[in-house]
Amino acid sequence: MARTLVYPKVDKNTVHRKSDRASYDLQTIHSIINATPVLHVSFNCSDLEDPFPTVLPMIGTMGSFEHPSADLNDPMDCYLHGYVSSGIMKQARSRAEKGLPITVAATKVDGIVLSLTPNSHSYNYRSAVLFGYGSLVENLEEKIWAMKLITDSVVPGRWDNTRSPPDGSEMASTTILKVKVVNGSGKVRTGGPGDEKKDTEREDVVERVWTGVVPLHESVGEPVRGGAGRVERVPEHITSFRDNVNETNEEYARTAAAAKGSAGNAY
């Protein structure tokens, strides 16, 4: 029997609103993180005069340097790509002993749910939040491994189809932040509208208003050649990426629209 590992439920990561949509299993949470092209990373500055948390859009992915064969159902770290002098890297460097407390958030919208009344409209979505401590990756082998991991998370196979590994100046200007995850949670909505009885029993409403789900998904367009490269033909690793992303995203959005179980109004 396949095992299912979960993040521990504590006050910080427990979902209260629509708790039936909550997920704490690693497979679900990690897959949402990896499926989201841009993660939003938040942290607090050490400057006591600045009361506002900082939120940054960053590229990142889940992985385990210690156990490279680990799958999404296994414990993993979150690797984030950044510039050496960016604020978050400076903060992490100044808190090297314990690591910088970080929250990583990811959201995928899979459909627009149209109900009988605006108050019952919703989205089909997948969201995930991770809580952990970020530290700079100093080990050269792990840094190159993480850079390849992040590059291939954007377009699989891209690292080996470029001039790689990076040279000295590129390595010096790039920093990898490794977030040791403490816990996390996910939240998923699928299905159609969840209309209230006061609306479904009104003939003047149900006879006039269209209800249902408009599937919504990211798609990858046709590659457009540019830059200094002289290769005319689009390589297979790019066309496969395009086809796989488009097929996977459209199929999920349509399946989510027809699903039963977690439908309801609001989020």
TrEMBL record:
Tree of life domain: Eukaryota
Family annotation (SUPFAM superfamilies): FMN-binding split barrel
Transmembrane region(s): none
InterPro entries, per the entry: Pyridox_Oxase-rel, Split_barrel_FMN-bd
Pfam families: Pyridox_ox_2
Coiled coil residues, start to end: none
Protein's UniProt name: Flavin-nucleotide-binding protein
